[in-house]
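Prompt: Have a read of the protein record below and flag anything odd:
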Amino acid sequence: MHCFRYAIAVLLAAFLTAPSLVLAQKYPDRPIKFVVPFPPGGGNDLLARATHQKLGDLLGQPVVIDNKPGAGGNIGTEFAARSAADGYTILIASNQVTINPALGQKLPFDIEKDFAPVALIASVPMLLAVHPSVKATNLAEFIAEAKANSGKLNHSTPGTGTPQHLAFETLNHMAGIRVTHVPYKGTGPAIADLLGGQVQAAFATLASIEQHVKAGKVRALAVATPKRSLAAPTVPSVAESLRGYDVALWYSILAPAGTPPDIVARLSAEFGKVMALPEIRERLVAQGFEPGHAGPAELGATIRRDLAKWQKFIHDTGLKVD
């Protein structure tokens, strides 16, 4: 009787897992939707457009970019979370997804419960840039100018709760200044108004602001990484003036929770191959990214670590984000 029950249990388990195995074996047999939760022009979009074609070549199916901006990236992220867990919808997400919960935002998704980690693919330094109307030529002078004009200077971000937003709120807190937040629906419009002088400052990815710095349209004051960036070695780090300042920005690939592990593994492996291609690495480095690859387990650990880090940081500092 024991052997009979064991045999039935084995057959039942095989029956229950058969659909996912068949799905994985056929995968992919149609185009894959690559959700970008911001408008064209930002770091998420640049990374997606740099990798989607090669990813499609490796998978044997087109990978189609779908920009779904709004609510600081939450609209597109929710769309991906609610999509079928079949590997045909993937999301590119920055570490904003680990920041928003710490800010007390009521999110329509849970980053740990509603997503399966696929791969960590790149990081990028954020650069503090100011409009030429700002007199400051370095961070110390900017802090002094902000203190002399408390509340009168504005800074733009791609949206409330983004890493760029937290970077400036952290600067406000640590430097004892008050530069007013002006959120936009994406990096493109946030930088456009910085260039136009409607706002005076912004933390922006090196990928999205470097060309404007080189053209003299904005002035670079500091990078948000603990040390100077290899991509901008002449620009000091904020930490050189404010010890302990560190706001990282990394990018990852997520799939809806429940996506079969074999499909997650396949996607992660193919992203690893794409990120190792010399032409892809050269293109991304030229845009200010630091390309790389880490698999599902390491990305999951990174997400958990950052969630705890930002919860503790915001609790300890009393940082308030409206």
